[in-house]
Amino acid sequence: MLRAVLSRELLRHDPERVRAALTARNGDPDLVARWLALDEQRRAAIGAVEEKKRDRNAASQKIGELKRKGDNADEAIAAVSRLKGEIEAEEGQLAAVEGELSSLELTLPNLPHESVPVGADESANRVERVVGEPPRFDFAPQAHWDLGPRLGILDFERGAKLAGARFTAYFGAGARLERALIALMLDLHTGEHGYREVLPPFMVRGESLVGTGQLPKFEADLFKVEAHDLYLVPTAEVPLTNLHREEVLDEAALPVRYTAYTPCFRAEAGSHGRDVRGLIRQHQFNKVELVQLTTPAQSYAALEELTGHAERVLQVLGLPYRVVSLSTGDLGFASAKTYDIEVWLPGQDAYREISSCSNCEDFQARRANLRYRPHRPDGGGKPALLHTLNGSGLAVGRTLIAVLENCQQADGSVLLPPALRPYMGGLERITAA
RNA sequence: GGAGGGGUGGCUGAGCGGUCGAAAGCGGCGGUCUUGAAAACCGCUGGCCCUUCACGGGGCCCGUGGGUUCGAAUCCCACCCCCUCCGCCA
User: Fold this and answer.
1) Residue A395 CB: number of other CB atoms within 10 A?
2) What does the pLDDT look like over A163-176, one tens digit per residue?
3) Catalytic residue selected from A12, A126, A281, A421
4) If you ran DSSP here, which 8-state letter would residue A116 be given?
């Protein structure tokens, strides 16, 4: 099936806007001209084929009538046969054009929202707010890659022994802390923020990844189980957003709010040499995800709300952070607007991304055919595309890093935030085993 | 892994290869009736694409993709999904 990625209406009627958006995103603006040419070819081909089909259908019907009356239909049959050959040839051409068009469309990124700061990269990101104060230490704070092994709760060597670089084994209070964080986040989002908890498959088919935008362009970032033609999920955004693929939801059911814990698997292609130490960049990490499906009118309010839900986790844990609005050049492929939440990490002396909250508008909805039926007094209302939003709430491994580094004490122990203690069986402090 | 059964419109469920995008029922919407509601009766009630200022016209869709045929929901092939039984298994 041919599926547009950006709205074809928009491409046809306001190509300048798309060209400008592509430029702002460091994309190739010439793709718009190519698209317009292919679209023109496609429509011409459709017109030609359908005209012949109309003739063929009329003629075929006549054959039925002749035969029913017992008349000779040989002549009519011969005529239809000729048409058939022509139709097949033209359909072949049409299919070729459509194939080209849709491969091009699948590589076009979403258009940035007008409120997104324009810039080539992360240096143009806009800091929206800074919350909490970085802790002051009267000793030199350790990075988690020193702290964790000293406490006996993180083992990078043995993780590598099992699976190679970028895999880690957690022990004792470290393993439990990861589990505690997952439980705390899920409880918060289900109990206070109105999300429904989902436990989705951790592997998905290619269609789902096309739906959310990882495929076909970013295959290299994914782990694939080749023998079974399945991919490990790079984020719960994929299964959650695809749950209602090919469905038409009732407007009364909106907004749909889902939260899920899943491990995430990323090949981290092209990031060799970056964040090689510690837990920051792993091939496998845990994440609690937030997803919302909303009407177009609600989606930007929902983005603010969803970002607030993710922030709430850091507030409950007492961790300092800031929120930045990503610039056009730093925006993800599917996103129209993204807030990154960056937590303060004393071991790096920097704010680091711990959550990314995006409004994809109808970009994923168009790929995944996610629709709703608008409520109207007369009961009518054509199905319309939903808006999809997703955000980490939060990346669990990085939250564990933030707890270790921000709550470390002079003696090398970690004083746990009070909100976490019930989830740790009452444990107040992690000390060397 | 082996054997069998099945996927039709929002739902249930018919459908000798030709006027079937598809009977019927349910549901939904509108109307008649009613003070109002229910009941009864009447009418309407899928999606995508192309074209048109519009009215309208056309093409495609009966799990998906191919094939046979002048013509396929109906026949053939492959795949996907669901169900039953056997095997295996946390």
Assistant:
1) 28
2) 999 999 999 999 99
3) A281
4) S
Residue in the block written with tokens 């023109």: A40
Q: What is the ipTM of this complex?
A: 0.85
Nearest Cα to Cα of residue A387 among A296, A322, A321, A304 = A296
Proximity of residue A64 CB to strand B below 7 A: yes
Catalytic residue among A19, A266, A352, A366: A266
- Determine if the pTM surpasses 0.80: yes
Find out whether A290 and A262 touch, Cβ atoms under 8 Å. no
Residue A398 annotated to the active site: yes
Q: Are strands A384-385 and A256-265 parallel, antiparallel or unpaired?
A: unpaired
Annotated active-site residue A34? The verdict is no
Q: How far apart are the first and last CA of chain A?
A: 58
Asked if the model's pLDDT at residue A285 lies above 50, the reply is yes
- The question of whether A281 is a catalytic residue gets the answer yes
Whole-angstrom distance, CA of residue A394 vs CA of residue A341: 9
Residues 6+ apart with CB under 8 A from A343: A314, A319, A320, A321, A351, A352, A354, A398, A399, A402
Whether A40 is catalytic: no
Q: Are A186 and A233 in contact (CB under 8 A)?
A: no
CA–CA gap between residue A29 and residue A361 (Å, rounded): 21
Catalytic annotation, pick one of A7, A179, A353, A413: A353
Q: Cα–Cα distance between A76 and A206 in angstroms, integer?
A: 46
**Is A266 strand, coil or helix?**
coil
The per-residue pLDDT for range A24-51, each reduced to its tens digit, is 999 999 999 999 999 999 999 999 998 8
Entry field: residues in chain A: 433
